[in-house]
Write a structure and sequence with these properties.
The radius of gyration is 19 Å and the shape is globular. It has helices at about 1-15, 25-45, 55-80, 85-90, 95-105, 110-135, 140-170, 175-195, 205-235, 235-240, 240-255, 265-280, 285-290. Helix content is about 75%, strand content about 0%. The chain is an all-alpha fold and about 300 residues long.
Length: about 300
């Protein structure tokens, strides 16, 4: 729940940053600062940072590229084109990318309650999407922002699957994040230089507040908690944070962006919450066995 609450607010925090710094540069500064904080934490807690193999560093770099570079470059771009709630909505597809990616590439079987929870959440997303679709004619760029958000989510999912491999190698979460964020910031700086983006920052109160919120809460704390979730419950269940955060983003958008609630938004939020409850709550075995999906090997509720 920590991740969902923090990330539910980050979408609006990004909007407060964009008037004062180029989006690509913002990603670079955010993850450079966050990685330095993580390195300090690791050194202070005596977590080893320099004992990793080339293969593990390749995974750190891959995770940094997919999550802390491509994912966020596209997210910042999409946020400049659509409401924060709509971009958060696109990110809910993470549950399906993670679920099928884990099955295809990591051979992690589907769990019945996760599938049913995903379907309930999908129904909720359909209601919310229909509500947003009605407004696209008023804001044509919103559709492009939503599509870019989907590609961003696909990149994040690829990084999630890579992180799971490092967890199997017993890499400490803090060390994993330190290196991945550093590599991600390096890739973002390279993108800035290639595209000729300005690194200039207009230091204002909104920028400073949003920068520290995004760096400390939206990155250091939330990603530590999220990758711990992946380690403990797997990438499919962990991705349900992406279902809860848009509901929180809708509430924030109501106050910060004058979002008007409709029946479709209310129904969509309700089904999203129900999907989380079904997927993440322990279900009695007799009831679970009556669900019409086959019981996977090594299934655990």
């Amino acid at each position: 729940m920590t991740c969902a609450i923090i990330w539910g607010i980050t979408w609006i925090a990004i909007k407060y940053q964009l008037p004062y710094v180029d989006g690509t540069a913002a990603v670079f500064y955010r993850f450079l600062f966050s990685s330095l904080v993580m390195f300090v934490i690791c050194l202070a807690t005596k977590i080893s940072l320099f004992k990793f193999s080339r293969t593990q560093h390749f995974r750190f770099a891959s995770q940094g590229l997919f999550i802390f570079c491509i994912n966020y470059l596209l997210t910042y771009w999409a946020t400049s084109m659509a409401t924060s709630a709509l971009i958060a909505l696109a990110f809910t597809s993470l549950i399906f990318f993670n679920m099928f990616g884990a099955r295809l590439f990591l051979n992690i079987p589907f769990e019945k309650k996760v599938v049913w929870g995903g379907l309930l959440s999908l129904l909720g997303m359909v209601f919310i999407s229909f509500n947003e679709y009605q407004n696209i004619s008023l804001h044509p760029s919103s559709l492009w922002g939503f599509l870019i958000g989907l590609f961003s989510t696909m990149s994040a999912s690829a990084g999630n699957l890579v992180s799971y491999l490092n967890k199997k190698d017993h890499v400490p979460t803090s060390a994993n994040n330190s290196w991945a964020m550093l590599y991600g910031s390096g890739f973002s700086l390279l993108a800035c230089l290639i595209m000729g983006k300005s690194l200039h920052i207009e230091v204002t109160q909104p920028f400073v507040i949003s920068f520290f919120y995004l760096s400390i809460f939206g990155t250091v704390i939330s990603f530590w908690a999220y990758f711990k979730l992946i380690e403990n419950i797997g990438p499919a269940k962990a991705a349900f944070t992406s279902i809860a955060s848009p509901v929180i983003a809708l509430v924030v958008s109501t106050f910060m962006e004058d979002l008007s609630w409709t029946m479709f938004l209310a129904l969509g939020s309700l089904f999203c919450i129900m999907g989380n409850v079904v997927a993440l709550t322990r279900v009695p075995q007799p009831l679970l066995q009556r669900l019409p999906l086959g019981r996977p090997k090594n299934f655990r509720s």
